[in-house]
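Let us work through a complete example step by step.
Step 1: write down the sequence.
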Amino acid sequence: MIVTVTPNPSLDRTYEVPALDRGEVVRATGERVDPGGKGVNVSRAVAAAGRRTVAVLPLGGAPGALVADLLAAQGIEVAPVPIAGATRSNIALAEADGVLTKINAPGPELSAAERELLLEAVRSQSPGADWIACCGSLPRGLAPSWYAELTARAHAAGARIALDTSGPALLRALRERPDVVKPNAGELAGAVGRPLATVGDAVKAAEELRELGARAVLASLGADGQILVTGEGTWFGEARVDAVRSNVGAGDASLAGFLAAGGAGPGALASAVAHGAAAVRLPGSVMPAPDDLEPSAVTVTAQVPADRALREPAP
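Step 2: predict the structure and record it as tokens.
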């Protein structure tokens, strides 16, 4: 069973448009409404694979009620923490050529009491969890040290932590030795304070995160694949993708695939790559089901192509 924690969830509306012309009336060719937030997406992907998952998240107002209903409809157990503010609503515009424009609202501010209720909700769901996946940005009212506190409490209870966040929240949490962290290339570059131009640069940055406390680093490099850096070894994985429809939630699908496959070693990396590749072929933030996966298109190797230039360098 995988518990996910999403401190700043959202109601996500995705519009598919031929092209985005500023100042013009743009007619959408498709529309989706999904429960959003990185941890929510992980739960959706885990549920799509037929695994049990519990989503812990603060919810408020009409958008929060709709998020809970949408999650329940997908077979996801919800452990809501009622809050006074309304859950944020986000908008994504997906153009036909694969370009995505996102407008993310800041979200509500959590009170001190709501912050403690959220930690207590995680504690109550921890027994029996294979993993606790803590994902996304922190809302107003939660200090950058909040993920570090959650990680420390979870480890004290014997749980394993997967962390997908960035900036000060990531750096603070590394001190508590999360079991795996999952940055993308930009977040990895931000954590080490320098640009990444090659796969080797990304591996070096991941090794530095391990020196700071991460036990394993699963890093998404966009179209350039993914790397897994652990104390047991380093692996590189990639998959053939003929057409990208939307990359919303692809990293979250990757983390779900990694954890569902055990959360360790090259087999779990292959699952992560397969899930991420399947996600970008789907509309909006739709999470892949087993039938969407193409394991034969995935390659994983310990021979990391360190000199390969990244098609999307991280500044």
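Step 3: interpret the result. The two ends are 37 Å apart (CA to CA).
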